[in-house]
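Support request, please re-run this one:
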Amino acid sequence: MNKHYQYDKHINYIKSNELNKVINFQKINKTNENAPIPPDLDDLVCLHKIIRKRKCRTILEFGVGYSTVIMADALKKKQ
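Re-run finished. Output below.
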């Protein structure tokens, strides 16, 4: 799926939750097309929504990347 379409689809959620202050989503759209496994904006937004909705207190994450930043932001904002 086109990354620009994904960004446009989630723009209201990204801005209302100030996720654009945590990650530069427009840069992801442009620069990571050639990454071995580029971040998927649908997945990142979905992760953020689930963590906030379920009011998670602890998350076990393996690896470091965009999902780590999104999960940390969701945990911080749920308090």
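The chain has one domain: 3-78. The CA atoms of residues 15 and 73 lie 13 Å apart.
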